[in-house]
Amino acid sequence: MQTPNQRVLAVMPHPDDVEILCAGTLLRLQEKGYEIHIATMTAGDKGSATLSRAEIAAIRREEVRRAAAELGAASYRCLEFADLEIVFDNAARRKVAGLLRAVDPFLVFTTPPHDYMFDHEITSRLVRDACFNAGVPNYKADTPDAQSEGKVLSQMPYLFYSDAIEGHDIFGDSSRVTTIVDISPHIEQKAAALCCHDSQRSWLQRVHGMDNYIESMKNWSAKRGAAIGVAYAEAFCQHLGHPHPQDDVLCSLLNAVSQRAAQ
Question: What is the rounded (10 degree) CA torsion for 153, 157, 160, 161?
C-alpha cells in the first residue's frame, strides 16, 4: 500500500451526490484520522421546476455548505460548471486537474463511467483524466488558489467509482463492484447530511419519482449492506488501470469486503 498523505477527495457532479453515494465511507475514513475534502462540479443551478437558475443555485450552495459541515469536511469547492452542461474539453480538464493539485489527495472518489446521465459520466472521465494529468509537471492546470501554483500530485491516487444510480448501467446490467464498505454506525449522520439538501425533496419526486429521498438512500444502503451481512453499506469499483495503485486501500483501512473474486 502507498503511504497515505491523510487527504481524501470526493468529486461529484451535483451538491447532493456525495451524501447519497459515499458520505458513509468518508465518515469512516475521517474517523480513522483522514482529512476529507469535497468538491462538486456544479452548484445545482437547474435543480428546480419553479425557481430561476440563480435562485436555486443560491439555495443549493448554502445547502451543500451545511452538508459539508455536517460531514466535517476540511474544505468544499464548487468548480462552477452548469448543470447538464459539463463537457470533456481542455478547459474542463485543466480545471479538474487544478482541483486535484490543490488538494493533493492519496484517495479519490467520483461517479462511475457508466451511469444514468452524462453529468455523472463526464465527471467520471474528467476526474480519471485529472488523476493522471495533475501529476505531470509540464501540464498546465487552472489552479484555484495561489497556494497551489506550481504544485503537482505527490503520488498517483487510488481512484474509486461510486455506485451507479439504482446499481445498474443504461442497459440494466448490474454495476461492477470491487469493494463494499460497512457504514452502519454512520447511517444517521449520512442521512442528516442528505437532509441538508431540503430543496431537492420536491425536485426528486417530480423528476426521479422518489417519494422520500432519505428513505430511498437508506433502502439502497440496506441492499448493499445485505450483500455482506450488515445493516447498511456503500459499494465502489476501484480503477485498476495503469499506473493507479492495485491494492484495495479501503479493505486495508476500513476492513471493507472485497468483491474482486466474485467478478
Answer: 30
